[in-house]
Structures are given as C-alpha cells and as structure tokens.
Amino acid sequence: NAKVFTMEEETGILEQGTVLVEDNLIRGVGENISVPSTARVINADGYMLFPGFIEAHCHMGITEEKKGREGDDCNECVDPVTPYLRAIDAINPMDAAFHNAVSAGITSAMIGPGSSNVVGGQFAFVKTHGRSVDDMIRLAPAAMKVAFGENPKMNYGMKDSAPYTRMAIAGMLRKELLFARNYLKKYPYAPSPGREESPEDEFRYGCYRDVFSGKIPLKAHAHRVDDILTAIRIAEEFGLNLTLDHCTEGHLIAEELAKCGYPAIVGPSMASRSKKEVSSSDFKTAGILQKAGVTVALTTDHPVTRIQYLPLCAGLAAKEGM
Hints:
This protein has 322 residues and is an alpha/beta fold. It contains ten helices and twelve strands. The longest helix is centred in the middle third of the chain and has 21 residues, at 166-186.
C-alpha cells in the first residue's frame, strides 16, 4: 500500500503500490500483484517508497568520521599527478557514515580521492551496505579524478612547486593525457601480469584505458566558470567523457553547459562558503542547469556535508526550482 515512485515514465507513481521481493531481488512492481500466501507482508500505507538514492561524489570511508588525521586518507599531497591510486585501497566500510547512508536510504555511492591533486586517482562505485569493500564494489574503477582551481594551487603553490597557477594545472593535465594517449595507442590492450614490455609505463598509463575507451569519465572538480570551461576544453581536445563535479558557478553559463552535453554533479550546497571559488554556492544552481537542459545530480561531498542529508539537499534543491 505504499506510494511507489518507480522512476519509469510508463509506470510513473503508484498510489497504492506493491513491491514483491524474492531472494533479495525485486520480482515485481505494480498495483495488482499476486502476493504468495507465504510472503512476509509489510503494510506501508501512508509511506512513500523510492529506489535507493545514489551519492554521486563523496569521500565516505576515505575521510572517516570521528578519527581525525588517522582516518584521513583522502589526498596524497606529495605528487600532483597520481592516476594509479585506487579508492578501494582506502575505503573503510567500518566508517560510521556507511550506517548513516543506509539509514537515510542511500544504497550506493561514488567514492574516491579528494581534489588536492591535478590527477587524484580512481573512484569506485560501491553499495553502502557491507563489511568488505571487495564485496560492496559494483564498478572499480568508475571514474578518474581530476581537479582544477584553488585546491591544487594552494596545496602545491604554497610549497613553491607546480602547479602554482591555473595554467600549470591545465598544462600538467594535458601532458599527462598526451603521454597516456600515446602509450595506449602503442598498447591498446592490457598485457598479462608479468608480461608487460614496460611495467613502469603500464602502471602509470595503463589505468587510463577505461578513460580513453569511454567506459569511465574524467571526474572533474571544478567550481568557477573558468575552471569548468577549462575542464570541458581539455575533455573535448582528447575526446573524453566528463562529469562536472561541484559546478558551483554553472548557473552563470547554463546554456553553454547544455550545448556541450556533459552532466553536472552539483553541491555541496548545504556547506559553508568556505573559500572564494564557492562564494556563489546556492541551491538554485541545480534547477537553473536542469531547466537549461543539463543532466544534473546532487552531491553532499561527504564529509563536507554529512551523507545522510542528501535527501534533504534534494528537497531544498526542489524548493529552489529543480
């Protein structure tokens, strides 16, 4: 008897819906489903039922709650280009945030490195319920993290090393992608372990195979308009898929973003405007982009905003026009 949001255009919303589950699989969704006499029945009259929510960009289990520096494995701040780092080697499912996610109906999440590096490493798409990350994985790698703007500048510029400017960030990323493309032209298929002609190059550039094949996107941390456009420019130069993560000033160039066709992952809009490049952060951004024709998702960027508030972020985004 739940109000079931099926997320299918043909079915739409079922006012008095039934969902039949058997062996942990959904076997049927409808208003007139035959329920076996042996079934356990949950009367959800007065409740709304949704598919599990997805957190599109976070650092849950990598930046652990309640553990301080010891539980922070988000950024490797000694080398600005680290494509070979894998989120699965740092995700700790014992982080309390996983329980909070499940309790809030968030059943899967994109989890990966932070934004201190020009190339930060590989994201993983995981289920939020479990004790072993190897059992929770649904796709790994799921994206290659790249970052523009203040974070790489501040982390390395303050050490008097590159990148010191936005030009250097773009230049370093282009160089990395150029070398990777040239390597993959020579070695388009992954060699058997131990049979690599150049093991060091395979380790460094082989992780870009799924990026250049189009299987996974560059996941671009970009807040400001100029950084967003630089991310798009580089993705188009190399013919790569791209998601625009944060996209804080995206509402200022909504029509341009709609033309390029790359999706935006907006947020964390509930967090404080803690630095200059997020001074325009607002829940209105998602709706403005959506109305312009951009495919939009929301993010808490956990732990910047705690992951259990993702449904609340969705409500506030809808209140502001999404």
